Amino acid sequence: xxxxxxxxxxxxxxxxxxxxxxxxxxxxxxxxxxxxxxxxxxxxxxxxxxxxxxxxxxxxxxxxxxxxxxxxxxxxxxxxxxxxxxxxxxxxxxxxxxxxxxxxxxxxxxx
Amino acid sequence: xxxxxxxxxxxxxxxxxxxxxxxxxxxxxxxxxxxxxxxxxxxxxxxxxxxxxxxxxxxxxxxxxxxxxxxxxxxxxxxxxxxxxxxxxxxxxxxxxxxxxxxxxxxxxxxxxxxx
Lengths: 111, 116
Known about the structure:
Chain A is an all-beta fold. In chain A, about 0% of the residues lie in helices and about 55% in strands. Chain A contains no helices and eleven strands. Chain A has strands at about 5, 10-15, 20-25, 30-35, 45-50, 55-60, 60-65, 70-75, 85-95, 100, 105-110. In chain A, the strands form two sheets. In chain A, strands 2, 4, 5, 9, 10 and 11 form a six-stranded mixed β-sheet that branches. Chain A is globular and about 45 Å long. Chain B is about 0% helix and about 50% strand. The radius of gyration of chain B is 14 Å and the shape is globular. The interface of A and B includes residues 48 and 90 of A.
């Protein structure tokens, strides 16, 4: 069974702090996506990474795909209260057209 | 900005009844997906669909489930005989094949299915 484990599950930090969320698997993925999901809504795509070692930046968010394409990280610089939410990683295992979602990291940024 | 839409937003049905959940994917997208999310749990893949065929399905997607693209715009998920454990949020997603965007899935707002 292919799994994507996210850590930490919960994170509560003060505004202005930096944080990193991890997404790990023993499987190789063709691509990996990061989403943000608000309660009662569908996941909203933040970024897609497809090349091992790839780094993408979206304002204060930096996403990295591991060299072996088995893991990824999301780093937020100077967190703001608006960053509060559920962050999900999702991957498409090589050779398949299905996507596996991670367990999620619930982030709370305190003012 | 184009978006995926889903109807209804909430469906309540009795156990054993058939339900059809509807989705209108983004118009130029060619790959379509259904996912479900049981309350408090992670998003689970159900099925992917391309060129009027199922590309891949999960163990959850058994004979009680079927998908169809009845016309050029709608993509439906049918559950033939609902069970209590089918209660969940069902999300439709679509992606574009061109320009390397296959992996970028755009999700609809979801249909909350409650089976009583």
